[in-house]
Amino acid sequence: MIYSFKNHIPVIHESSFVHPLAAVTGNVIIGKDCYIGLGAAIRGDWGEIILEDGVNVQENCTVHMFPGKSIVLKKGAHVGHGAIIHGANLGENCLIGMNSVIMDDAEIGDECIVGAMAFVKAETKIPKRSLVVGNPAKIVKEVSDEMIAWKTAGTKLYQRLPADCHESLREVEPLREIPKDRPKQENFYKTLNEFREK
User: Are strands 89-90 and 11-12 parallel, antiparallel or unpaired?
Assistant: First the structure.
């Protein structure tokens, strides 16, 4: 669902995928290879929202701001299921954990990891490569090379997902029984423990 608002029409690169049950409104620019999941709302009615290349905004996320603000989710930013980005800027290749809330004028640095259900207060400045958890969120340590490599590998899956969705996602009627030739799921990602063993 793509909506104009006060003559602002969203700009979405053709390589990106916006789920038909997501809503993108108004002054929004979405770069290449971005994934916008079902139930996500990206609402550029009161200000501009820019998603640089390779950003993913997963299912049931909200991206919005106070009037007059503009925000950027930089290249490779990864916004987990149910998170809220309200007037905050996200650095390159950062990870925002599921159901986190990042408030107005907060700045999340490059390659930060914000843990699930964290609450980052308004105007908080998080330096690059910080691991942030809690409510209110606090920096607990620096993100290791191993952690950011794992995060980057996961984000690459989301950067390939738009092409897979364009190619194979279709509305269908459900099967009523399991077919004998049901395809096996690909095993294309390692857990963090498997990644460490590599």
Answer: unpaired
